[in-house]
Design goal:
It contains 14 helices and 16 strands. With 390 residues, it is of the alpha/beta class.
């Protein structure tokens, strides 16, 4: 993807980026090469300087990208129906949301749930102090009646709990390793300090990275071609276990853009899926003003299913976002809201199209449900089962 002409950041933000760049340089090894996973982690989460930690406007019209909950209420209203169904199996329940963005999903979901189906606690696990403050403001302003149910966590729950975990556009922001195949060997891609800014460098892959890449090649039954570059997340099983270990019974929902493995590592996708988002422009220059743009990689949903197996979770469903929302009753939700809409429902119709059309979010976004102790298939996966593609 060629980089479009991007707006220049203001001088104060450039200074923040320069400070972050100094920290990145300080973290480079003796060979001058910083593993890309370390670069991505620092660029996104370094306290006070990283993209999610520096008080920048990230979501919505004034930010860099828009997520499904920011479009309106339809997404959360459909999720509310799925949450209600799971609550029918678990009894008294909690909701745990990972990376809650502006808090719009939490506020709308709580408002959409019937009083008899409200969680005992709506917990938000949020790394960014800046976003935590935004979430608290959103809930105070838009869902004050439910604020007492909401709590913020610094780490996953330590005590056993039942209910629903929601991770909307979370896995794509985990720091990935980048690799390259060269003369049959696996190389780790890193970041070095070049003459005009940061640049790519390579080194022999550490054993965990090489093992992960060889596992991919064995699973797709095709060696990756010479010069092939992509991303991989060897830490995914450990991360998934950390956020689901205490879930005794319930459903973990992961909603993100991605592919099954055989599509993720297709021969023509030879430079991977890494993307940057800046002022609603998508591009591939990961070295553009570090800390001032979002960095993401598409999700290998086969890897997520394998991680689930390692964590003792069942893959209770896998489908695209359009069919998941339909299974949750989107048509009924849309009809109810259109009947009450002052503008005749034009805005709602536009929102529904954005959420469901194949060229927009409908197929680009995938939904995986990982269950523990559930007696039946969650309703969101009842219309289209794509697990065979994993």
């Amino acid at each position: 993807m060629a980089r479009p002409i991007l707006p220049e950041p203001p001088d104060d933000l450039k200074q923040l980026s320069r400070e972050l760049q100094q920290r990145l340089r300080a973290g480079m090894a003796d060979d001058g090469c910083l593993p890309f996973a370390r670069y991505m982690e620092t660029a996104l989460y370094e306290p006070g300087l990283g993209y999610y930690s520096a008080g920048l406007h990230k979501l919505g019209a004034q930010g860099d990208f828009v997520t499904a909950p920011e479009l309106g209420d339809l997404f959360a209203a459909c999720l509310a129906r799925q949450v209600t169904e799971i609550a029918g199996q678990t009894g008294a329940f909690d909701v745990l949301e990972l990376g809650a963005g502006t808090g719009r999903l939490a506020a709308t979901l709580l408002a959409e749930l019937d009083d008899a189906a409200l969680p005992r606690r709506y917990a938000i696990l949020e790394r960014s102090a800046d976003l935590r403050a935004v979430q608290q403001r959103t809930l105070r302003e838009t869902a004050p009646a439910h604020l007492e149910r909401v709590t913020w966590l610094d780490r996953p729950p330590a005590e056993p709990w039942r209910g629903v975990l929601i991770a909307n556009e979370v896995v794509d922001a985990l720091a990935v390793e980048r690799f390259e195949i060269r003369d049959g060997a696996v190389l780790q891609l890193g970041v070095r300090d070049g003459e005009s800014g940061f640049a790519w460098c390579t080194r022999p892959a550490p054993a965990p990275l090489e093992s992960a890449v060889r596992h991919v090649e064995a699973d797709i039954a095709t060696p990756l071609a010479d010069g092939y570059r992509s991303e991989i997340l060897p830490s995914l099983p450990a991360w998934l276990d950390s956020v689901t270990a205490t879930l005794e019974q319930g459903l973990a929902l992961f909603i993100d853009y991605g592919y099954p493995r055989r599509e993720y590592y297709r021969p023509e996708r030879r430079d991977g899926t890494l993307m940057c988002h800046y002022r609603h422009r998508a591009h591939d220059d990961v070295f553009f003003w570090p800390g001032l743009q979002d960095l993401t990689a598409w999700v290998d949903f086969t890897a997520l299913a394998e991680a689930a197996d390692a964590c003792g979770l069942d893959v209770d469903g896998y489908t695209n976002q359009a069919m998941f929302l339909a299974g949750c009753g989107l048509d009924a939700v849309l009809g109810e809201k259109m009947a009450a809409a002052a503008d005749g429902g034009a805005a709602l119709a536009a929102e529904a199209r954005q959420l469901t059309l194949p060229g927009l979010m409908g197929e680009r976004f995938q939904v995986m449900g990982l269950g523990r102790g559930l007696a039946r298939e969650p309703r969101g996966f009842s219309l289209l089962d794509l697990r065979y593609r994993l």
